[in-house]
């Protein structure tokens, strides 16, 4: 249960902490006891109303939800009789409340997670953060060039870019801010994001802020699918999704999150992820490069030149080509699972290098001729082997797969 901001019982307890009448640990126990009492009183309640729908640009706070308005309307319980503590000063309104919270920020600083829970319980507010407000901004327009630029750089949130059949674009940004007041939240939301919409580009970048308020941006962009884009997407702690796009040059960089890319035609596609996953499906890229630290790559790619590297993770690939594909895959402390397109008009060449690991390639060895193993040089551990299919040079399409594993496994077979 979240205690309403108008509840004078918690207000009095926090005031006692401010006046050093009780310790922060005692305050935590008292508020938890209040929470238990109120939970018991409301144990028989059923069918809570849904939270009110947010209108564009209008915040909804915890106190405005129906369930909290009902709780605020109940007759307050005297904390002094219930808990054996003397009450502090009389009623406090919401304006005084903000001042008390600011005062408690300095009192509670550095006292640990238990003390942080006091204000966390109290009306959904957080130390240094405040209440949560949401604002939505929508922009619409049209590009006047054939290769517009899309550039997005943000922390904490998510971005989705998707092609549609219209000739115009629509950008929707939902900004979530934790701040003591609506005015401060609105000001922070306006200051943190720099938005540039011009005939040849659309740019959204997050500025650095000294306010200390928690902020995140959820971005949705729909763009004409008949245009070819230059795209840069960088996110920390979130999700990046690109779908149904034609991109000449695309770079996606994610830290602590997930990348989803589907039904994309690209000239150059470069993906980098740290502590997360990358999932690619239905990709047709002349050149595609993926690097990953601590996570997993799952990709279904048609390409002429493909490379992937993973440190402490797993790579699962389905590779095909329209003409000639050269692929290079490297894993340190993980595994590679490669499925190649199987067709009579494709010639195959496989090169594998293993260092403290094992290969699994029985299925594909059946179509390889001139298969040979290469003994490692003196003083070097590991195994290497290579092979190619008959008439490799005469085939109209070719796939060359080079795989290297350090401390892991390689599996090469046919795509399902």
Which value, in Å, is the CA radius of gyration? 29 Å
| Sheet having the most strands | 13 strands, mixed
Could you state the order of secondary-structure elements as H and E? HHHHHHEEEHEEEEEEEHEEE
SS summary, helix count = 8
What is the subunit organization of this protein? Answer: single chain
Structural class: alpha/beta
- In the predicted model, the low-confidence regions spanning at least 5 consecutive residues are 1-6, 39-129, 370-380
Give helix % range. Answer: 10-25%
**Mean of the pLDDT scores?**
74
Q: Which word captures the global form?
A: flat
How many distinct beta strands?
13
Strand content: over 45%
Can you give keywords for this protein?
416 residues; flat; disordered N terminus
Overview of this structure, please?
With 416 residues, the chain is α/β, with parallel strands linked by helices. Helix content is 19%, strand content 51%. It has helices spanning 8-18, 24-41, 66-73, 79-83, 94-108, 113-121, 182-192, 362-365, and strands at residues 131-141, 149-164, 169-179, 193-198, 201-206, 215-224, 228-320, 324-340, 346-355, 358-360, 369-374, 383-388, 397-414. Strands 1, 2, 3, 4, 5, 6, 7, 8, 9, 10, 11, 12 and 13 form a 13-stranded mixed beta sheet that branches. Strand 11 and strand 12 form a beta hairpin. Helix 1 packs antiparallel against helix 2, helix 1 (8-18) packs across helix 5 and helix 2 packs across helix 6. It is flat, with a radius of gyration of 29 Å. The two termini are 50 Å apart. Residues 1-6, 39-129 and 370-380 have low confidence and may be disordered.
């Amino acid at each position: 249960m979240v205690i309403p901001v108008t509840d004078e019982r918690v207000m009095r307890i926090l005031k006692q902490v401010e006046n050093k009448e009780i310790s922060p640990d005692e305050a935590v126990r008292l508020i938890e006891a209040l929470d238990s009492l109120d939970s018991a009183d409301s144990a028989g309640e059923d069918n809570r109303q849904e939270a009110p729908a947010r209108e564009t640009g209008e915040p909804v706070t915890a106190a405005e939800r129906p369930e909290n308005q009902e709780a605020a309307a109940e007759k307050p319980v005297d904390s002094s009789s219930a808990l054996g503590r003397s009450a502090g000063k009389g009623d406090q309104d919401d304006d005084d409340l903000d001042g008390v919270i600011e005062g408690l920020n300095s009192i509670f600083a550095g006292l640990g997670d238990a003390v942080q829970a006091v204000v966390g319980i109290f009306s959904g507010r957080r130390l240094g953060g405040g209440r949560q407000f949401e604002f939505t901004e929508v922009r619409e327009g049209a590009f006047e060039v054939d290769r517009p630029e899309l550039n997005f750089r943000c922390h904490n949130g998510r971005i989705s870019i998707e092609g549609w059949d219209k000739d115009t674009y629509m950008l929707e940004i939902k900004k979530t801010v934790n701040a003591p007041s609506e005015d401060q939240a609105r000001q922070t939301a306006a200051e943190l994001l720099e938005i540039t919409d011009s005939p040849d580009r659309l740019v959204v970048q997050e500025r650095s802020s000294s306010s200390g308020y928690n902020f995140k941006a959820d971005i949705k962009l729909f763009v004409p699918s008949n245009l070819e884009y230059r795209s840069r997407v960088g996110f920390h702690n979130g999700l990046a999704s690109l779908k149904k796009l034609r991109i000449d040059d695309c770079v996606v960089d994610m830290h602590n999150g997930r990348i989803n890319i589907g039904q994309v035609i690209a000239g150059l596609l470069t993906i980098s992820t740290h502590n997360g996953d990358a999932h690619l499906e239905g990709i047709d890229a002349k050149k595609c490069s993926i690097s990953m630290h601590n996570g997993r790559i799952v990709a279904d790619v048609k390409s002429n030149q493909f490379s992937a590297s993973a440190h402490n993770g797993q790579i699962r690939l389905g590779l095909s080509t329209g003409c000639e594909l050269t692929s290079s895959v490297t894993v340190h402390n993980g595994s590679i699972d490669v499925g190649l397109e199987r067709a009579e008009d494709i010639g195959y060449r496989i090169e594998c290098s293993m260092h403290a690991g094992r290969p699994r390639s029985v299925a594909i060895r059946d179509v390889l001729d001139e298969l040979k193993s290469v003994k490692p040089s003196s003083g070097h551990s590991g195994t290497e082997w290579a092979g190619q299919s008959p008439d490799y040079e005469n085939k109209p399409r070719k796939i060359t797969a080079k795989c290297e594993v350090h401390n892991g496994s390689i599996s090469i077979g046919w795509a399902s």
